[in-house]
Specification:
conserved putative lor/sdh protein from methanococcus maripaludis s2 fold, 367 residues, four-stranded antiparallel beta sheet, Beta-barrel_RND_2, alpha+beta, Multidrug resistance protein MdtA, MacA_alpha-hairpin_sf, efflux transmembrane transporter activity, 3 helices, Elongation Factor Tu (Ef-tu), domain 3
Length: 367
């Protein structure tokens, strides 16, 4: 019995020893194989750093409004007797757009005008008689009061008649009328929109930190979605003297000519205020930047022992414009930064510079 137990123990030890030995042998072979593998080489494209002029600007979204714009309305109520304009027409300042019924007021005016010469003659006759001491001063004053009151009534009636002729307050383009012939309109009815499109204004807001970069007379440019690719130019004509305590923004207004009347009130515009350019700046494609929470960086190529390797350099992204970024860091002109193929790179990674952009960032390394 003891011999049987001893035999089983010997078999178990031999079995476990064989398994352990085999595992040690396999691990050793794996370590040897990995140690003898060639170092991976990743394909990348590069771009040489050269001194670049970086254009500075302030960008904002603006709201376009006409030089003058108003909804033409009436001061007094009445019936529309004449509409003297077409929808969308160009009119001059003072043009009579709409006439309201003023027949009653014209009749009253005619009656007053007919009586005026007689009242005036009475007043003049009494003045002469007073100079001859034939009438009292009270009679002369009563005649004068009657004469001046009638003159005032005539002027009042004339003003009322004029109010019933709605005129264009300035030259501009009319919109679509909101009234019809024969319609009774109450005071303040919106008759038609009138806009002066010869000169347009745009209002936009900028952060208070940018106030020092702006001044009256400074040039601006803007684009609108209606006419893509077309740039309109103007100048700043006013800057709000206070900063909004709710948003920290400052309102700026600019004027721009609109000779062809393509700009219309209510449009939104992408406004660009050009500032002084920065010379000799380090500019890299945004594809060259590794954006990370702990800091942004780029990879710079270096030649070591006839091999091309990369060095990771921390940079600060100052501004962005389209596909490029203005950066600051330990970079020198004429160095080459990696523009594509950066996902698999690390410090001292071996790379192979190719001419064509890397189509797939996760391309398998070349062994």
């Amino acid at each position: 019995m003891n011999r049987w137990v001893l035999g089983m123990l010997v078999i178990a030890v031999l079995a476990f020893g064989t398994v352990i030995g085999f595992n040690l042998f396999v691990n050793k072979k794996i370590e040897t194989t990995l140690a003898n593998l060639p170092e991976p080489v990743y394909p990348v494209t590069v771009e040489k750093l050269t001194p670049t002029v970086w254009p500075q600007s302030i960008k904002a979204i603006g709201f376009i409004e006409p030089n003058q714009g108003v909804s033409v309305s009436n001061e007094v109520a009445g019936i529309v007797t004449a509409i003297n304009f077409e929808n969308g027409a160009n009119v001059e300042s003072g043009t009579v757009l709409v006439s309201l019924d003023s027949s009653v007021q014209k009749a009253q005016l005619k009656a007053q005008q007919v009586q005026l010469p007689s009242v005036r003659d009475d007043y003049n006759r009494l003045r002469k008689l007073y100079q001859e001491r034939s009438v009292s001063e009270q009679s002369v004053e009563a005649a004068q009061s009657k004469y001046e009151a009638m003159q005032a009534n005539i002027e009042s009636l004339q003003a009322t008649i004029n109010q019933r002729e709605i005129k264009a307050p300035f030259s501009g383009v009319l919109g679509i009328r909101n009234i019809n012939l024969g319609q009774f309109v109450s005071a303040g009815t919106d008759i038609v929109r009138l806009d002066d499109l010869s000169l347009m204004r745009t209002r936009f807001s900028v952060p208070q930190a940018e106030i020092g970069k702006l001044s009256v007379g400074q040039e601006i440019s803007l684009t609108v979605e209606t006419f893509p690719g077309r740039e309109y130019k103007g100048k700043i004509n006013a800057i709000q003297p206070v900063v909004s305590n709710q948003t920290g923004l400052v309102m700026v207004q600019a004027e721009l000519p609109n000779d062809d009347k393509t700009l219309r009130g209510g449009m939104f515009a992408a406004v660009n205020v050009a500032l002084s350019d920065l010379d000799n700046q380090v500019v890299v494609p945004q594809t060259a930047i590794v954006f990370a929470l702990y800091g942004n960086s780029v990879f710079v190529t270096e030649q070591k022992d006839d091999e091309t390797r990369v060095r990771q350099v921390t940079v600060e992204v100052l501004q962005r414009d389209g596909n490029f970024a203005l950066v600051k860091g330990d970079l020198k002109f004429d160095e080459q930064v990696v523009t594509t193929g950066i996902l698999n790179l690390g410090n001292n990674t071996k790379v192979n510079i190719v001419d064509n952009p890397i189509s797939a960032p996760d391309t398998m390394p070349q062994l």
